[in-house]
Design a protein that fits this description.
Chain lengths: ~350, ~325, ~500
């Protein structure tokens, strides 16, 4: 079932990009969705088992394992709650997401879980959703304007700050004192909210905890750039002894491969091991932690975020919560180390490969 | 109008336009070597070469395409689509050798579509390849759902980790491809025909050259190199990710144009492309070595592309004023 | 004549124009009275177009003055000339094919109020103009690109009518028109004439001159030869004056031996461009194709060589009918085509002499898939010395060679294919006398070796000097085939091409 939805979505994206059959495609899509909506009307609205309320799960980019898992969990949980769920991916393009929102409004969806591409760029779209009277909960990122039932966000600043704390903690295990730390920070895309906030949190942590960031390099959430940046940074400063990755989904493999290329890849505890702390806690990183190549990850509570988002929508549809309540939930990250890497509640351990 | 008789001597301007890239490259290398101790090491040189393997492979094919007066912006889409086919087949438990073969087959299909549309139907190359880029990217999402994949297989491990004479085997592959590209373009009859078609389509046609087949072939060469690029990138990074090759076409085109290939077709060399590729690699490398922040890196890249196009424009102007 | 005391609309006195290396106009005088319709005649390069470009403000004269209505004027550009009432309709139309008729006519003068186009007024005004150019059946909002070529030309004329025009210049206006359209054009001209507008015709068509024009001026070698009323001169005299005395100057060629028939063209048709062309050429024989611009002479060569498709007709080569679909087919039959424009279709300017020389016969320099540099070197060296091409080396880019040497490179390229039939399209255009003679002697050598040659040329002396027979084309139709014996005169050719008696 999941695969089918993904396929449909992919085809939709393709058609949109081709720019030829967009209208035809989305209208036929809309028709089929309308049909299910009509069926839904016969049943009482808002019932837990109500069956056919239409829920749109709109993710900013499924290229990122975390947001993919978040979205998948929302989709899965939504189905468990009896929604008819459609999954959208904006491929990190604000324009794409804006037009997807337009389509969703036009197709008469009942509720929306939205992970916005950008806080500013998506404000208009959220206001359109408000005008259409559709309850929306936000995931992962906020918007600057517009009303929503709730915002379930991993606290990105906290993720960065926790990362800084873990750098110090894990370095101590390695026998490196705070003042001797020389850290490479691999930033996300600084034009995205989470990229900016994680960097802020990390740099604030570095200042408070008193260690040196020798280099902060951009990766734009791209694996190849992370790989190149790691090579170059270690070339410029061979005494770097710790690396912070703003997102492990796109950076962990690159960093590990780059270190391997430079023959600097050592396991934790070994002489010369470079401490690596990441944000997100993807399955891959959990494996690296188990293998002893990565020290720690600040994992976002993806399940709690996704389930909470759907629950808020159900409440809003049942009238238990105002559609414009704007409840802000900043959820603190869970830290993954070798000690708790097998924990089943980590989202990274719940991803099908 | 009679053409002025210039018997042989090349003006300083001609020399600069022809060899300018090498002077610039040399200049930048010297400046960096003097100012940055970490730049002037063997490791850094191999780092740069390793970093440009993708650009380099694509640049060879792009030189062919641009020589015919065309352009191919679909390269990133072909890469990611071919890669995604590999990963889903692997997931389905197919043999690795077959799957790698499929990378090439998928890329080949894109190349044939691009080439046929441009050469035989006469569609504008920019738009054709923009469309196939979107199709490629979209298809990759259809296949993988946008997820990332690791543990790609033994040959990826081999390509990613093996070194020959202390240099990554990927670099050797890239250099070998440059040698093959050089041979094809400058030493064979095929290369002659390609240059002729790009230099003056009408004259080539009158001279009995099958201009359509030649134009089409350039896109096919390009697509096969996309397959190699995808293979190498996945090997190097140890993973497949759905943003692979995103926006790469512009840096590749910039590298080719900086290397002296004219956007209007006809003139260009493989060695120039190698130089242009390395120049871009070195600039990216230096930006990181000097801890340049994200904002200024973007500005620098924009400036590179601007300069490349400016260089081409100056050259074209010089040509028409002859 | 004797129009000195009559009122003069336009007066050009002592107009002199020099281009680097060319003295294009030599102190030309020209005047027009209101309502005069004057034809300007002359061979290619006689200076007609230059004179008109001076009048149209496109060229500034090196010397001389222009007066309009007694007022001296100086044109710095075409806009200046327009302001003074000069309208120049070029052969290539300057319309916007995607826009509607109204916008095309009023593009530089759209009626508007506060930035908004007054579309009602625009349509009304356009209808007026359409009436004047006899296009009442067209609506102002029709798209110009959808109109017939002739109608487009009338629109172009209509465009000039929105401002007061004193002189209308028509450059070969009838070359793309049907007879009915020509009739409309003439009617418009007559109406303009009644209103006192003077009209200048550049044309080669004798019938038209005698039908519509009052006067004619003949130019030759940048000089004004004469101007008189059309009734005062016979068609034959016009042609003689155009050719001057140099016409009878002859090139000599040695005796040629004709062999078997190499190519025969039978009933070649291609739309309205070519109709029922038929001729044949034997080995060792040289056939000339003569016609004015747009007569279809180049199209004949292109159709034979497979560059253009033809609708019907038969091409018989070495005694057997052949189907040539693309140049490659023609080359494998051992045909060669030296195209008219060597920059556009003959050479790859950025590449070297050797590159260009071997392009039509890459097999000769191939070893497997590779280019054999040694073979290439030998081949290009022998080409350079055989045709005495002046180049510092075989590696020189051809763009640095002179026109004559570039043409020799093109010839050499084709000689490398060892052709049996060579098609030459204006092979000596734009090259100096010395190089011309060399090219003739190269062709002569080929003829003596038994190659058949077809040459298109617009220079009559050249055709008379080197051809064995000449086929004359006019408007895509074959007028006649003339044998080049002592009795063939330049005047006969020109008259045939222009449609004299």
């Amino acid at each position: 079932m999941k695969k089918k939805v993904m396929k449909a979505m992919g085809i939709l994206v393709m058609a949109a990009m081709l720019g030829t059959s967009l209208a035809a495609c989305s209208s036929s899509d809309g028709e089929s969705q309308e049909k299910t909506a009509e069926n839904g009307e016969e049943q009482s609205a808002g019932e837990e088992s109500g069956g056919s309320k239409k829920l749109a799960v709109m993710m900013h980019s499924v290229a990122d394992d975390f947001i993919y898992c978040c979205g998948k969990r929302a989709e899965e949980y939504g189905k468990e709650q009896g929604y008819d769920v459609t999954f959208y991916d904006a491929d990190n393009e604000a324009d794409t997401q804006a037009s997807q929102v337009d389509d969703v409004i036009a197709s008469g969806f009942d509720a929306i879980v939205l992970a916005p591409v950008d806080a500013d760029a998506m404000s208009d779209s959220v206001m359109k959703i408000n005008d259409a009277g559709i309850p929306v909960t936000l995931l992962d990122r906020t918007v600057t304007e517009g009303a929503y039932v709730a915002l379930n966000q991993a606290n990105n600043v906290e993720c960065g700050y926790e990362g800084a704390k873990q750098i110090v903690e894990q370095a101590e295990k390695q026998g490196i004192a705070v003042e001797d730390l020389k850290v490479l920070e691999l930033q996300g895309m600084l034009s995205s909210t989470s990229g900016r906030e994680r960097s802020e949190g990390f740099q604030q942590g570095a200042e408070e905890l008193g260690f040196t960031i020798v280099s902060s390099l951009p990766t734009d959430w791209e694996s190849e750039k992370a790989y190149n940046a790691t090579l170059d940074a270690l070339q410029a400063d061979p005494d770097i002894n710790a690396i912070f990755c703003a997102s492990d989904g796109v950076m962990a493999d690159s960093v590990i491969n780059a270190l391997d290329q430079l023959q600097l890849l050592k396991n934790t505890g070994e002489e010369g091991h470079i401490v690596i702390v990441t944000v997100d806690g993807t399955p891959g990183v959990i494996q690296y932690i188990k293998d002893g190549q990565i020290d720690a990850a600040c994992s976002q509570p993806a399940y709690a975020m996704a389930e909470g988002a759907v629950d808020y929508l159900t409440k809003a549809l049942d009238g238990e919560e105002e559609a414009d309540a704007c409840i802000d939930n900043s959820l603190n990250p869970t830290t993954i180390t070798a000690d708790n890497a097998d924990d089943d509640t980590l989202w990274g351990n719940n991803v099908e490969s | 109008m009679a053409v002025k008789t210039k018997t042989g001597e090349h003006s300083a301007r001609d020399v600069f336009l022809k060899y300018g890239i090498y002077f610039i490259l040399l200049f930048i290398v010297i400046v960096l070597a003097v100012t940055s101790p970490s730049f002037r090491t063997v490791t850094n040189l191999t780092n740069v070469l390793l970093q440009v393997t993708t650009y380099g492979c694509l640049g060879i094919g792009m030189t062919f395409v641009i020589l015919t007066g065309g352009i191919d912006v679909s390269v990133g889409g072909i890469m990611v689509c071919a890669g995604s086919v590999y990963v889903i087949l692997s997931q389905a438990g197919m043999a690795e050798g077959l799957n790698i073969f499929m990378i090439f087959i998928v890329a080949l299909i894109f190349g044939v579509v691009n080439g046929y549309a441009v050469a035989y139907i006469g569609m504008p190359p920019f738009l054709v390849t923009l469309a196939t880029q979107c199709i490629g990217r979209g298809m990759s999402l259809v296949f993988t759902g946008g997820a990332s994949y690791r543990d790609l297989g033994a040959t990826f491990e081999f390509l990613g980790k093996t070194k020959l004479l202390g240099i990554s085997i990927q670099i050797w592959v890239m250099l070998l491809l440059f040698a093959v590209g050089y041979f094809l373009l400058h030493k064979t009859v095929y290369g002659r025909k390609l240059t002729a078609v790009g230099g003056n389509l009408n004259a080539a046609r009158v001279s009995g050259i099958n201009d359509r087949l030649i134009t089409c072939s350039a896109y096919i060469v390009m697509s096969l190199l996309c397959a190699v690029a995808a293979y190498l990138t996945m090997a190097r990074l140890g993973s497949y990710y759905s943003a692979m090759g995103d926006g790469i076409e512009f840096m590749v085109i910039a590298a080719v144009v900086i290397g002296g290939t004219s956007m209007s077709g006809g003139s260009g060399t493989i060695i120039g492309t190698l130089a242009g590729t390395i120049l871009i690699g070195i600039i990216n490398n230096a930006l990181n070595l000097f801890h340049v922040g994200a904002e200024w890196q973007d500005v620098a890249k924009g400036a590179i592309i601007f300069l490349a196009v400016l260089f081409d424009a100056i050259k074209n102007k010089a040509k028409t004023s002859d | 004549m004797g129009g000195e005391n009559r009122n003069v609309l336009l007066k050009m006195e002592g107009i002199d124009k020099r281009f680097p290396g060319v003295h294009a106009l030599k102190s030309v005088d020209f005047s027009l009275e209101p309502g005069e319709v004057c034809a300007i005649l002359g061979e290619n390069g006689a200076g007609k177009s230059t004179l008109m470009n001076v009048l149209g403000g496109i060229y500034s004269p090196t010397a001389g003055k222009i007066t309009i209505d007694g007022e001296e004027v100086v044109f710095h550009n075409a806009k200046d000339a327009e302001k003074k009432g000069i309208a120049f309709i070029h052969q290539e139309l300057s319309l916007f094919p995607q826009m509607d008729i109204a916008s095309n006519i009023y593009i530089s003068n759209l009626p508007h109020s506060r930035g908004r186009i007054l579309s009602k007024k625009l349509r009304q005004d356009t209808r007026e103009i359409l009436k004047r150019v006899k296009l009442e059946h067209r609506k102002p909002d029709e798209i110009v690109g959808d109109l017939k070529i002739g109608e487009q030309q009338l629109i172009e004329i209509g465009r000039t009518l929105i401002r007061g025009i004193k002189v209308l210049i028509l450059d070969e206006p009838t070359s793309s028109l049907t007879n009915a359209e020509i009739e409309i054009l003439f009617e418009i001209v007559r109406e303009l004439k009644r209103q006192g507008t003077a009209v200048i015709f550049i044309t080669h068509h004798m019938d038209e001159i005698y039908e519509i024009c009052d006067t004619l001026m003949i130019m030759r070698d940048g000089k004004r030869i004469m101007k008189c009323g059309v009734g005062d001169i016979s068609r034959t005299e016009v042609v003689n004056q155009m050719l001057g005395h140099t016409a009878e100057e002859q090139y000599c060629h040695p005796e040629r031996k004709y062999g078997q028939e190499v190519l025969a063209v039978k009933g070649l048709c291609r739309g309205s461009r070519l109709q029922n062309i038929h001729f044949s050429v034997r080995s060792g024989e040289m056939l000339g194709l003569y016609g004015l611009l747009g007569s279809g002479r180049t199209e004949v060569l292109r159709s034979i060589f497979g560059l253009d498709k033809y609708d019907s007709g038969e091409i018989i080569y070495m005694g057997a009918p052949v189907k040539i679909r693309k140049p490659k087919d023609a080359i494998s039959l051992k045909m060669a085509l030296v195209t008219e424009d060597r920059h556009k279709e003959g050479l790859i300017l950025e590449e070297s002499v050797r590159f260009n020389m071997t392009l039509a016969n890459l097999k000769a320099i191939a070893r497997g898939i590779m280019v054999d540099r040694q073979k290439e070197k030998i081949l290009s060296k022998s080409g350079i010395s055989a045709l005495r091409i002046k180049t510092p080396s075989a590696n020189q880019q051809v763009k640095y060679l002179s026109g004559g040497n570039q043409q020799k490179v093109v010839l050499s390229k084709w000689l490398n294919t060892d052709p049996r039939l060579i098609l030459l399209d204006e092979p000596t255009r734009g090259i100096d006398i010395g190089a011309k003679q060399e090219i003739y002697s190269i062709i002569e050598r080929l003829l003596q070796k038994g190659v058949a040659v077809i040459m298109v040329s617009s220079e009559i002396p050249e055709l008379l000097g080197v051809c064995d027979k000449v086929v004359v084309l006019k408007n895509g139709q074959q007028v006649c085939e003339l044998t080049n014996d002592k009795d063939l005169h330049a005047a006969a050719l020109l008259e045939a091409a222009m449609g004299g008696e």
